[in-house]
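B., you asked whether I could sanity-check this one before it goes into the benchmark set. Here's the sequence:
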Amino acid sequence: GKYRGKSLIKEEWFNFMFSLAPTMAHSVRKPRNRNESYGGHIWLNKTYYSQAHETQLGPYLPSAPENTIIARGFSGQVMNMYPNKNLIVVRFAEDPSRLMDWPKFSKLLLGSFKEIKRD
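And here's what the prediction gave me:
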C-alpha cells in the first residue's frame, strides 16, 4: 500500500477489510458455504465464533495461514493471496457449481513453496 514511501491506502481501510463484517454474526448459514468468515470485501482465513448461531466461522482454507486473503468473484473466479509465500493465485475459469476443492488445492500448493522471511 505504499509508493515512494507514501501510503496509497489508508490504514483504516485495511482495518475494515481484515475485521469480521458485523452482519456475519447474524447471517443465515447455508450448507455449502463452509462457515466462511467475511470481512470488508474479502474473505478472511481466521476463525471466529458467532454467538447468534452458536457456531464457528472460518477458516476458509484450514491449511493456509491466517493472513491468507481470499477474493472470490463471479462463477468461480478466485484470487488467493498468500503473504507468507509471496504468492498470488488467480483463477479465471468458470465453475458455477463450485466443484473446485480450494482447501485441498491450497494445501497442495502451499506445500510446493518455501516460506518467505521478511525483516
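One thing to flag: The longest helix spans residues 102-110. Otherwise nothing jumped out at me.
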